[in-house]
Design a protein that fits this description.
By secondary structure, the protein is an alpha/beta fold. It has a domain at 26-156 and 199-247: 3-Layer(aba) Sandwich (Undecaprenyl pyrophosphate synthetase). The protein has helices at 14-20, 38-44, 49-70, 89-112, 128-140, 157-174, 185-190, 237-248, 259-263, and strands at residues 30-34, 74-81, 116-120, 148-155, 202-205, 224-227. Strands 3-4-2-1-5-6 form a 6-stranded parallel β-sheet, with helices on both faces. The structure holds farnesyl diphosphate.
């Protein structure tokens, strides 16, 4: 009979495994981006400002695709603000045409990527043709169960808060409770343009300016901010990954104590 050598296996306690396998840093659920620097990008090349917006569409396409592939829950892009109407008429018209083209040409790709598209802002003040294209692309992607892509269009954070208050008061009036109308944070949230979106975890701004510029004022209360000097038309996947990596090294405290300090 052959004697089998008994090999003593080292028993690894579950706690040791937990300690040795570093947890994967979490991805942000929702990234919001202020796409700034189109004009400067064009000026640097001696081109008209609108050339920067045109080149900016490539950065939009690339960013949407990267975020969808990463499995983000939501991406919100600030495409046109309530203040952007102050720009020269020709630039505004160009932006509207660009937007329409994007909505029509990218819808198939969005469907294939399982993306659900929606607009956010005072949409009824947009040109009728833009509203129509937006409604069609929104309907065509409505069954998407992957990433939600939200475009801020005629969007302003202050306007959104005012509109939410008015919508709440209108609701109260319809329910006959005007005398006792109340407003909680939950009520206001429920009347935002996109009430079911989680708050952005990460707010990215290209073009180097350290400003919020009226973007998602309510929702960004605890967002981590990352500003890059890269101008929007040059922004690509590696820039996005740098922002995410930086986010993953942050400690979010939401007004509480740091984790280590909390244990003391
Ligand atoms: C700000 O750059 C950018 C805008 C006002 C428009 C953003 C639009 C796009 C990126 C293209 C269209 C969007 C979609 C979703 C298809 P700026 O012109 O203020 O740049 P500057 O600060 O250098 O002047």
């Amino acid at each position: 009979m052959v004697k089998r050598k008994i090999v003593k296996r080292k028993i690894v306690k579950p706690e040791t495994i937990e300690r040795d396998v570093a947890p994967k840093p979490a991805l942000p659920r929702h990234i919001a981006i202020t796409m700034d620097g189109n004009g400067r990008w064009a000026e640097k090349l001696g081109k008209p400002r609108v050339a920067g917006h045109l080149a900016g569409v490539d950065a939009v396409r690339d960013t949407v695709e990267t975020c969808a592939r990463l499995g983000l829950e939501a991406l919100t892009l600030y495409a046109f603000s309530t203040e952007n109407w102050k720009r020269p008429q020709a630039e505004v018209s160009f932006l509207m045409r660009l937007l329409r083209r994007f909505l029509r040409e990218e819808v198939e790709l969005m469907r294939r990527q399982n993306i659900r598209l929606q607009g956010m802002g005072r949409l009824t003040a947009l040109p009728a043709a833009v509203q129509r294209d937006l409604a069609e692309s929104t309907a065509a992607t409505a069954a998407g169960t992957g990433m939600v892509l939200t475009l801020g269009l005629n969007y302003g954070g202050r306007a959104e808060i005012v509109d939410a208050c008015n919508a709440r008061w209108e609701e109260a009036r319809r329910q006959g409770e005007t005398e006792t109308v109340s407003m909680t944070e939950r009520d206001l949230q429920a009347h935002l343009y996109a009430p079911t979106l989680p708050d952005p975890d990460l707010l990215i701004r290209t073009g180097g300016e350290m400003r919020i510029s009226n973007f998602l004022l309510w929702q960004c209360a605890y967002s981590e901010i990352w500003v890059t000097p890269v101008l929007w038309p040059d922004f690509r996947g590696p820039d996005l990954m740098r922002a995410i990596e930086d986010f993953q090294g942050r400690e979010r405290r939401y007004g509480g104590l740091a984790r280590a300090a909390g244990k003391q």
